[in-house]
Automatic annotation (TrEMBL):
<dbReference type="GO" id="GO:0005524">
    <property type="term" value="F:ATP binding"/>
</dbReference>
<dbReference type="GO" id="GO:0000725">
    <property type="term" value="P:recombinational repair"/>
</dbReference>
<dbReference type="InterPro" id="IPR004504">
    <property type="entry name" value="DNA_repair_RadA"/>
</dbReference>
<dbReference type="InterPro" id="IPR020568">
    <property type="entry name" value="Ribosomal_Su5_D2-typ_SF"/>
</dbReference>
<dbReference type="GO" id="GO:0008270">
    <property type="term" value="F:zinc ion binding"/>
</dbReference>
<dbReference type="Pfam" id="PF13481">
    <property type="entry name" value="AAA_25"/>
</dbReference>
<dbReference type="InterPro" id="IPR003593">
    <property type="entry name" value="AAA+_ATPase"/>
</dbReference>
<protein>
    <recommendedName>
        <fullName>DNA repair protein RadA</fullName>
    </recommendedName>
</protein>
<keyword id="KW-0378">Hydrolase</keyword>
<keyword id="KW-0238">DNA-binding</keyword>
<feature type="short sequence motif" description="RadA KNRFG motif">
    <location>
        <begin position="249"/>
        <end position="253"/>
    </location>
</feature>
<dbReference type="GO" id="GO:0016787">
    <property type="term" value="F:hydrolase activity"/>
</dbReference>
<keyword id="KW-0346">Stress response</keyword>
<feature type="domain" description="RecA family profile 1">
    <location>
        <begin position="63"/>
        <end position="212"/>
    </location>
</feature>
<dbReference type="InterPro" id="IPR041166">
    <property type="entry name" value="Rubredoxin_2"/>
</dbReference>
<comment type="similarity">
    <text>Belongs to the RecA family. RadA subfamily.</text>
</comment>
<keyword id="KW-0234">DNA repair</keyword>
């Protein structure tokens, strides 16, 4: 018998001999609890011939079988469809549309003839029925249950014998043998482990809905994300109808795919080609607008960046941004003032994107700079122009990732002029683009426009 550490962190498994309020590994507060005092030595067991280790070169590979969920954008994120026995954790902020999307997945699977079990721990059966009526998800092969007891849910899975199981949500389910409150780290760990084991044994795909914390991470212990096969995150602004689904972990496919959806009064609708969602509908070119080609996973999307530059009414000029990184906008403003000779220190600057999308990649720097310069000079940029590039503090334009893919998407959408790292300096890019905008404008538009 050997003495084992008496306290263990429920988040990361870190152990210590004495109790501490904060985990020394993951730095979480209140997660260190008592964990057994004695640990037994484990004797090596005999290994059957069928389970003996073999050279990796002698093993045969077989692609995991998949079946489509009926929603192409969701299948794109999963890597082609649902894998039998796979456990998918779907997380997102409250009200983003997790339950609506998974109910649509359940209805599609039931419509194809598969038996589906949808277990709701947050809503009653009548509430789920009303939402199903509104979204057109009424199917005879879709079975509903409102349970929060783990043993009862496992019994429902055994008696129903479904081909797809959906649990909404894992934080509401509790194991009666565990005295902790539902949603606590130990409860979430026990529930997730039991449901995962049941899904693997029955070879049935399992979709789990997970809550998120204030910082956007999945609530509960980190072991929850290790237990599941796929972690899909629902992202979207409540003020807009657009929703993105991204996979941060996927054992059966890539993690750089993005599914695009739109919330409507009749439920959630997939958007296979969102190229027009982030562009304005103006028939004439407007000063202060520039289009960039942003990457969402492997998908290239045209996004319009709008800027407004007006004389400051206070001693401290305002810098207001929406949909872009405020620190990068501040950097672009400094570069424009230093290297492009734009006097912006006495002006209020407002920068925003169209459609509520968020641009976080540095490839949007050039479009932000051109939109600000266009607004400052009151000159509309050419309509057929798309700008992609990262701006350095030295005023240089660096190539963004996947330039060929962005350029191909720009050509497909009719943008014949693609400004990128082919222009070495931001000063030259701004000067040439403003000059091209002046050439396309009528003489009346050139009155009272200062020289560059």
């Amino acid at each position: 018998m050997v003495k084992a550490p008496a306290y263990r962190c429920s988040e990361c498994g870190w152990t210590t001999l004495k109790w501490v309020g904060r985990c020394g590994e993951c730095q979480q507060w209140g997660t260190v609890g008592e964990a057994g005092v004695q640990a037994r030595r484990v004797a090596p067991a005999a290994v059957p011939d069928a389970r003996a280790a073999r050279p990796i070169t002698e093993l045969r590979t077989a692609e995991a079988p998949r079946w489509p969920s009926g929603i192409a954008e969701f299948d794109r994120v999963l890597g082609g469809g649902l894998v039998p026995g796979a456990v998918v954790l779907c997380s997102g902020e409250p009200g983003v549309g997790k339950s609506t999307l998974l109910l649509a997945v359940a209805a599609k699977a039931a419509h194809s003839g598969r038996r589906v079990l949808y277990v709701s721990g947050e809503e009653s059966l009548a509430q789920v029925r009303l939402r199903a009526e509104r979204t057109g998800a009424l199917e005879p092969q879709l079975y509903l249950a409102s349970e929060t007891d783990l043993a009862t849910i496992l019994g429902q899975i055994r008696d129903t014998d479904p081909e797809l199981v959906i649990i909404d949500s894992v934080q509401t389910v509790a194991n009666a043998e565990n005295e902790a409150l539902a949603g606590g780290p130990s409860q979430v760990r026990d529930v997730a482990a039991a449901l995962t084991r049941a899904a693997k044994d029955a070879d049935v795909p399992l979709l789990l809905v997970g809550h998120v914390t204030k910082d956007g991470s999945v609530a509960g212990p980190r072991v929850l994300e290790h237990l599941v096969d796929v972690v899909a995150h629902f992202d979207g602004d409540r003020q807009t109808a657009l929703r993105f689904v991204r996979a941060s972990k996927n054992r059966f496919g890539p993690t750089d795919e993005v599914g695009c959806f739109e919330m409507t009064g009749d439920g959630i609708v997939e958007v296979p080609d969102p190229s027009g969602l982030f562009l304005s509908r103006s028939a004439t070119p407007l000063a202060g607008t520039c289009v960039t080609i942003a990457l969402e996973g492997r998908r290239a999307l045209p996004v319009e960046v709008q800027a407004l530059v007006v004389p400051a009414s206070t001693a401290q000029p305002r810098r207001v941004v929406n949909g872009v990184d405020a620190s990068r906008v501040a950097m672009v403003l400094a570069v424009l003032e230093r290297h492009a000779l734009l006097s912006l220190g006495s002006h209020d600057v407002y920068v925003s994107t169209v459609g509520g999308i968020k641009l976080t990649e540095p490839g949007a720097d050039l479009a932000i700079a051109l939109s600000i310069a266009s607004a400052h000079r009151n000159v509309a940029l050419p309509r057929a122009l798309a700008a992609v590039g990262e701006i350095s503090l030295a005023g240089e334009i660096r190539a963004a990732s996947a330039t060929k893919r962005r350029e191909g998407e720009a050509r497909r959408l009719g943008y014949s002029r693609f400004v990128d790292d082919g222009v070495a300096l931001v000063r030259i890019a701004v000067a040439e683009t403003i000059a091209a905008g002046r050439k396309q404008a009528e003489p009346s538009h050139l009155v009272a426009v200062p020289e560059f």
